[in-house]
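User: quick one - fold this with benzoic acid bound?
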Amino acid sequence: MSTIRLGDEAPNFTTQSTEGEINFHEWLGDSWGILFSHPADYTPVCTTELGTVAKYKDEFAKRNVKVAALSVDGLESHRGWIHDINETQSTTVNFPIIADEDRKVSTLYDMIHPNSDDKLTVRSVFVIGADKKVKLIITYPASTGRNFDELLRVIDSLQLTAYHKVATPANWNNGDDCVIVPSVKNEEIATLFPKGHTEVKPYLRLTPQPNLN
Ligand code: BEZ
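Assistant: Sure. Structure tokens for the protein plus benzoic acid:
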């Protein structure tokens, strides 16, 4: 097991998935990525989660994000379960599900928390930037399905920081004002943020969301 922290390079691996063998870094290419684990196939919460992710394909694609799921079940199980997901969630699973029977990837990413369950993966989420660095880590228990709208919201925030030098304040939603990151000097603001800014305090400078017309 390795400890992965924000800013680390996402560990690479080669593994089997429902879309064939994946070398993670090659598969990511220039995209951002989400690697997320679920406890087991043929379980109710996981079924709704994977169906939801399939329906969000366009939202992920808009953000240049590729998604891969993982559990410690095998390929045959994944393939059978995909039929159920498609049927019950009225969708078509359109992303790879990694078959981590040997627990290679789940160990590498510390997705098995033995005091929660010593065999199954918890609901881990890793968001990986186009630079292959880990940008976000969240862990949910097996009993709580994830909020994928929140995941999109965080990706929007991460990409605003990566591409526009802004951070996002508490409860920010797409379209709200953003915070100019502290490393931007006052004399740079006019050039970087032509829509203007408000200085609430010298350390709290707001600007309209830069990537909107
Ligand atoms: C589920 O996916 O429904 C689930 C899995 C493990 C424990 C509880 C719920």
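One thing worth noting: Residues 39-40, 43-46, 142-143 surround benzoic acid (CB under 6 Å).
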